[in-house]
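Note to self: user wants both folds in one dump. Writing first protein now.
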Amino acid sequence: MYWKTKSKKPSKQRKAIFEAPLHKRHDLMAAPLSPELRKKYNRRSFPVRKGDTVLIMRGDFAGIEGKVVKVDLKDMRIYVEGATRKKADGTTIYAPIHPSKVMITKLDLSDELRRKALERKVTGSG
């Protein structure tokens, strides 16, 4: 499934993810598209970016819809408006959420390259 090894061993698959370079982690940060977007763009998933609107599907914050505030490629987590928690000292922080646990409901298409990538049809399994 991943690029570093052809092994089926779960330990080697996990290692490949943990040691992945940042430019390849971008592909791992994809989230499923909503049924409307899926039908419109003929794609099942797309990488999450800051500015996208997502609906949290799993976990303590399930049902919350908000904008993505930050995408952390190093920890492979996203931060969403509305998904916050309080620390012991009373300060409010965003809760980290894995991108596979959200659904993209609105895409931020202000970037021309991203718009082209979305409309480009995937031809091979590269």
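First done. Writing the second protein, which came from a different request thread.
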Amino acid sequence: MNDTATVALPRRRSPWNVAGAVSAQFSQALGSFLLQILAARLLGKEGLAVFAVLFGLVVVGTAVVSGFVGDSLTVLDRANRAVRAGLQWWLVVLSTVLGLAATVGLGGSGYLTWHQAVAFGLAGVAFVVEDTIRRLLMASLRFWSIVVVDFVALLGSVGLVAVVHWSGADVTLTHFLEGLVVGQLAATVVGVFLLPADDRWWSRQEAGHDGRRRVFEYGKWRALQVSVRPTMLSVMRVIAVAGVGRAAYGELEGARLFVAPAMLAVNGASSYLFARFARTKDESTLKLLRQADVGVAVLSVVSLGLGVVAAVAAPTLGSTIVGEEFDLDRWGVLGWSVYAAATAAATPYGVLAAVRGRQAATLVVRLIDSVLSLAGVAIVVSVASPPWSTSAIPYVMGLFALAGGIGIRQLIVADVAAERVS
């Protein structure tokens, strides 16, 4: 049987389906945004800085599994029993290993208490499993079901925190971690029931040796590629917190949250582009490159436009959104918008290059721009004086993200030239 899926996009795109597709791109991002806003208001600057580091680690783990398993189930033929067994085996192995590593690492190092570390490890496992269910629903074009799943996740996470807050007790980081576990487990259960019958079965694992190899061959590159940027952000947070302190970095995280909708739109759009490009592999690379160019232009303009508006409004609206403790810096707000625009100029090209089989080369480009970004952040933090040392961080990352996007586009241009010659 062919290794790749043959599911086609619907012939007719009704307004309802289009609305569902758009809503599904934003629902998960909106939930994460609201949860972090709640953390900013209830935990303060230093608490937000710690929560941001932890949530960044969750994003890294989810990116690894999403690239390895989620992208593989989108591109490979998951109806094949061997492939399905391979997908399920890798999901169990990766989620378990990541959860245990997080628990032991954070608990043993003393960064978290053992209670918090166990809650965080469980939350990480639940996150990656729930995200895989979302990818199955997306691959089946059940976009409104994804919105329901994301709403349940948000309701469960925020609900537990709200109960603690309304009871008069002080909300702590532990409550947020426990809320993540509750929300993701509830969303996973609901998501399984919303899956189509063809995707709601467990394959016999003895038939999955060849499937594991197929998933590994494709998923290893995607997992590395999509995890580079969130890993870079996580390492950046560690460098920044060590260099400027939790409170100062908490201010920068507050600025990021203020412009998060623009940044989250980029991430959501990239998921949609991947699913779309994966189903149009028979089209010419030139045609898909032109579509990616349009996506880059639109996302960049929107990101920068929203960033300018946010920077102007930050002094008056900042405390209303992230809390009275924060005094948002306009340059920091604008910096995150610049970073979002730069990411918009890189993400669609990375998605297209991955679908066209240039995973290894794309990974090299992203590794280079990420290493340069971290080096730049380390230099800025050590040389510049506050508050410029903090505000300059997103500008530095944006500069190298843009350079990486240009490099990846050149890879695709080379493929276009090769197709013309052949």
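Dump finished. Worth passing along: The radius of gyration is 21 Å.
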